Amino acid sequence: MSASNGAMLSITNLDFSYGDLKVLWGVGLTVNKGEIVTLVGSNGAGKSTLLKNISRLVKWAAGSVMFEGEDLSRLEPHDVVARGIIHVPEGRRIFPEMTVMENLRMGSFPKACRPDRERNVERAFSLFPRLKEREKQLGGTLSGGEQQMLAIARGLMANPRLLLLDEPSLGLSPLLVKNIFQIITEINKQGVTILLIEQNVYQSLRIAHRGYVLETGRVVLTGTGNDLLSDNHVKKAFLGM
Amino acid sequence: MEIFFQSLISGILIGGVYALIGIGLTIIFGVMRVINFAHGELLMLGMYATYFLHAVFHIDPFVSIVITIPLMFLYGAILQKIFINRILDALPQNQILLTIGLGLIMSNAVMLAFTSDYKILTTTYSSSSVTLFGISLSTPLMISFAITAVITAALYWFLLKTDTGQAIRATAQDREAARLMGINVKRMSIIAFGLGSALAATAGALISPTYYIFPQVGSAFTLKAFVITVLGGMGSVVGATLGGVLIGVAESTGGVYFGSGWKEVVVFVLFLLVLLFKPAGLFGKSRT
């Protein structure tokens, strides 16, 4: 897969600092249409920060992020959402005092996605039947796993073209983890391109087309999911082999 | 017992107006975590607008709110867009200074324009009352309570059922997550401040037939709004609604049983008691 041509998302030489602390050092990454790309790395490697740069919650210092040929540097977060880039943040970030249904409705807040609202609610409920049973319950009263389902379902409400998933399996039971990875694959098959951040390196490399390894803010390794799974450095650092 | 019911009902009637003031402040705080210290001055502007619409155009104060509400919404929205949106990420003390400063400019501008003389808006029904089951009810207070109830109901509907209303609540619950939903939080802040401003001005309009109107009238109401909001739980609309009614009743019954000089004491003792036993307010969530 060529990185320069036809890339949906292309990040080049991205530098970012929180005050004096430099977090990203010349990061380069591409995501092609239809792919699942995973970004793995230990805590504090800068994975979440990279996603926050893409969704413009924070503003990078140097480098560029292009989405389908458009430079994102001048956009606000709500403009990025309007382009079809949806960021499902770490820690679920459900609106605690809104019902499951209201949370889903907020996912389709941009005017352009409101006509598809009912269809998208149906899709969300078919992917996560559990949410239908909890429809009228407040987000804050759901279990961790249910909140994670809701966070992903809410992200799908805006007809995403590129879905940024930050640690979707964090804190879930092993059974639910397996389930979440199946669902991510399923969403990808429905035509949504995915950039996935995970601490569950094994599972995420298994479902990903390609992966990047981030260490202390730098990309140190890239390749297909299978290549990385058999890489000695990855095995040692992340898979405990 | 009759005196008790009399003061209870009067308290509830005026409490409705207090609720409007508190709801405005709490919506602003909820959406942007800024305490609006110019809240009383917005109410004062509502009073003056009502006064002049009555004096110049002879429009009844309860009718002129259809002009005052959109006007003050616009005014609040402009204040937010030009000034307050710039300090959303600033230190709290700077936010306080800005809203206090805006309030000072408003009250002094009004003083410059209309002097600090007390103005009285007299209507034919200003001092009339109706007697029901032996309880005498002030006509203007009853009308204002009815209007308050309608406006509060409309506001609840807006916040619960419309996309924009839900987006305002979402922004209040998690600002960053709201941005990831494609919500333009600066726009929500503009709507929130416009709403808060319109609600404060409505309260001002509703009390103008029964209160003195002067440029410094606002400061007492800023304090009252703050007490109501903290009592109900910062950011809680339900809390502010009940907090307003509670403060109205405390003032009214306190005035009757301890003398009108003591009514503020009753209010603040109640306030301190609530904070002692429920520091986050009646409907507030303690920050963990």
Structural notes for this entry:
The complex is a heterodimer of chains A (241) and B (288). Chain A is α/β, with parallel strands linked by helices. Chain A has helices spanning 47-54, 77-82, 100-107, 117-127, 129-133, 144-156, 174-189, 201-207, 225-229, 232-238; strands at 7-18, 21-32, 36-40, 62-67, 70-71, 85-88, 162-166, 193-198, 210-215, 218-224. In chain A, the strands form two sheets. Chain A has a six-stranded mixed β-sheet, sandwiched between helices. In chain A, strands 2-1-4-5 form a four-stranded antiparallel β-sheet, covered by helices on one side. The longest helix of chain A has 16 residues, at 174-189. The two termini of chain A are 29 Å apart. Chain B is an all-alpha fold and 288 residues long. Chain B has a single domain (2-277), classed as ABC transporter involved in vitamin B12 uptake, BtuC, CATH 1.10.3470. Helix content of chain B is 72%, strand content 3%. Chain B has helices at residues 2-32, 39-57, 65-82, 92-114, 139-161, 163-173, 175-180, 185-207, 218-232, 237-258, 263-277, and strands spanning 129-132, 135-138. At the A-B interface, helix 2, strand 6 and helix 3 of A face helix 6 and helix 7 of B.
Q: What are the defining features of this structure?
A:
heterodimer; A: 241 residues; alpha/beta; Rossmann fold; six-stranded mixed sheet; four-stranded antiparallel sheet; 10 helices; 10 strands; 36% helix; globular; B: 288 residues; mainly alpha; ABC transporter involved in vitamin B12 uptake, BtuC; two-stranded antiparallel sheet
